[in-house]
Design a protein that fits this description.
Distance between the termini: 37 Å
Structural class: alpha+beta
Number of helices: 1
Shape: elongated
Number of domains: 2
Number of strands: 8
Radius of gyration: 17 Å
Strand order of the largest sheet: 1-4-5
Strand content: 25-35%
Largest sheet: 3 strands, antiparallel
Order of helices and strands: HEEEEEEEE
Helix content: 10-25%
């Protein structure tokens, strides 16, 4: 499986993309009522999504990267060297953001 971003760059893997790929394979095989797993080759190596008989999809994507420099992010570390609930201001609104990478950078935000 290869994923291309809108700018043409190629990430190692995409968590939602691998789930969609597994569901697509299950649907073309007609195995929607049984547990199935697939070995899917990605730029991050072999990923094995498992679809339960009930339809939930589990993917072991490895350990998250939480070190702000490795994510990468400009947010500074707040808890145990990670950027957790770091404050970021956008258009006069303060958000709490947690920086994490699973091969590509994410910002997990909680709005209050």
């Amino acid at each position: 499986m290869r994923i291309f971003n809108s700018d043409g760059s190629e990430p190692q893997m995409c968590g939602n993309g691998i789930r969609c790929m597994a569901k697509f394979l299950q649907s073309i095989e007609g195995r929607s009522k049984e547990e199935v797993q697939y070995k899917i080759w990605t730029n991050a190596g072999v990923i094995i999504p498992i679809i339960s008989a009930e339809g939930s999809i589990t993917v072991d994507m490895g350990q998250p990267i939480l070190n702000p420099q490795e994510v990468p992010t400009l947010l500074g570390p707040t808890i145990n060297g990670a950027a957790v609930d770091a404050e970021i201001t956008i258009a006069d609104t303060v958000f709490k953001a947690t920086a994490v990478s699973m091969g590509n950078p994410h910002s997990v935000n909680i709005l209050f």
